[in-house]
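Figure-free illustration: sequence to structure, shown twice.
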Amino acid sequence: DSFSIKTADGTPILQVEGKLMSISGRKKVTDMGGNHLFDIVKEHLHIHTTFAIEDPQKQKLMEVKSSFKLFGSSATATFPFGAPNAHTLKMKGSIFDTSAEIIDETRGGSIAARIDRKLLSGKDIFFGQQTYAVQISPGYDQALIAAMCICLDEKNNEA
């Protein structure tokens, strides 16, 4: 369950290592120099699917929590987690989870990123890996948006 996050021109920027058969579904995210940036961990004692983004010392940096939506998917990311001035990003996906927007509620509803899932690519058919195209607005962290996309994908793969 390991993969690379790449720019539109194919340049790898992040490496994600997943542990098979892990109860927490822990995924380690590193930059291309091998520096450990954060882990994505599924938290189990919640009504809604919840992921924690933890720094290498296992301190929670961000929480991504899904919410019920009749058609499509929805999740909210809060960071820094537990801070009184926490930032909130909301993901809203389409009915067939082929696209989503990440809305910055802290900045008046501006679009932080757009996500498009490429359906039935060769990797999806033969290797079970989905391909996403993500457009990130200026001023937003690529690793943070990538973490949110990974959480959305993990949640959608549960269903």
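We now fold a second protein in the same way, so the two outputs can be compared directly.
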Amino acid sequence: MDKFVKKTPLVISTSTTKKVEVKTPKKNVKLEKIKSTLKQFENEEKETTKNKIVVKKKAQAQNNYETVLGTKGYSISKSEFSGEEIDKLKQQLMAKPHTQGGFSVVNIVKKFPIYRESTSRIYMPRYFGEEMFGIAKKMKVSTGLDIDVPFEGTLRDNQVPVVETYLNYVTKNKTVGGGGLLELPCAYGKTTLALYICSQLKIKTLVIVHKEFLLNQWVERIHQFLPTARVGRLQGTKIDIEDKDIVIGMLQSLSMKDYPDNTFSSFGLTIIDEVHHISSEVFSCALFKIVTKYMLGLSATMNRKDGTTKVFKMFLGDVVYKGDRDQEHDVIVRGIQYRSDDEEFNEVVTNFRGDIVYSSMISKLCGYNKRSEFILRVLDDMIKENSEQQIMILAHNKSLLTYLHDAIANRNIASVGYYVGGMKEAALKETETKKVVIATYSMASEALDIKTLTTLIMATPKTDIEQSIGRILRQRHTNPIVVDIIDQHDPFIRQWYKRRTFYKKHNYKIIQTTSTKYTPDTSTWLSVSTTNKKTVKTTNNKKKEDTPETVLDKLLANSGVVGGGEYKPCGDDSADELEYGSDDDTSETYQDGKSSKHDSVFSQCVLQFK
């Protein structure tokens, strides 16, 4: 059997275990073009800021425009401005998403408009319009139908100030209403809070979600906390909104389907779950169709790395409350540096420009069976250590998840189930009862709600892990555990530095070892940080705290992997910017045109769930 399940025929450059001198070409035409594009992008940003100041000053000096808030958004007559001023206004209403990673022109910027126009008016997001021109002079938005859905339950102490802050903020002007965002970490009870707000505002509500399993979760919570509410659905060709108190709509349908003008006139409150998804060019179209008196956006992470956070803030308002994660969880992080003397495995995959190909790097990790077997060994030891814990294993690549799932099942290590896109609700519920839950990162980041989870194993490297870890903190458990597999390639080491910064910030206890020195007895592992550690300022006469370089150097001394402060605790984090196959995909095709064996098995598994 090959030690790699799949190989990608790309150019390979060595990591720190082998250095190769590469001659720099005298003139790089592509690089010059990239620099020129970056400069243009920078100039456009400066010009946009300048234009905003100019237009806003005019608006403040002459605040007598005919502004209207209607079903298509906030609008103003074009006749109020010169052609040049309209152009400047449009420039401010252009979204410029970008991706991080290799420096190629296609990664830098792709613009799309966040305005609409007719022959006489220009339509823009409500809160951009209010910032520029003030509250609209005319309100043509329906107040929504009245509903009476008493809340059955009690808010936790930390939830009370959230709803009070939001309700006070949006009802300051009861005539026009308002909107805002709630940025709350996992396990804060975002759905519960939103339903309480709905019960207090007492107006017909539209809830927007982007995945069907989230839709089902909302239905469950509504029946739990608002048992008298009549629930409708808006999905595909199904428009079940008449005589309903709360309607749950799929974002894809709302974005891409045309509806009659009066479809949403009965709603007074719109709630958008996982609101950070709505900033894309396609999904943001939904926000031009749905303008209600009150707007509420929910997410644990409002900031988007592609620079489009401002898009949903223009439509929904700013963050009105940001909750902090409970610091009392005694989380233990077990960091395990995976070592290999296999030169081919240790090489870094690059493209012809020398950029790291992160998707191929992840595939390399997932296809290396020795690494997968080590993860299984760690899992087996953890179950023997504590048979009562429920463990979730996360990875980007479904081929690795399939390999682990089949091995766990065939070797009778524990009961195991999938929690991935494409599965029916009944199958997901069945998985929630298993000892080991196999899931993708994207599923774990989108309201996965299994309160009995106690342990997390991150089988592939990732930087943005807050929501993933939040899945084992939904209820208080004794010493929840995070197993962090640290790969020795340069880009993955840099990601580890960022994860460790997160762990320390949240006061988690960190212990580390290597795969070659691994033992289930964690008392022999190196302690990197302990909980409740107070920060002590040092002077030049005192011993400095270990830097990210020195701690890792100690751990990996004489390994030939890290040394001499060669790694820096910062750098490109492009691996998290790429999707290694959508959760709704059931197979993955590689350059040779063939699908991997594991993905084929995975496809069969998902199909039998449907």
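Summary for the second example: The longest strand covers residues 332-338.
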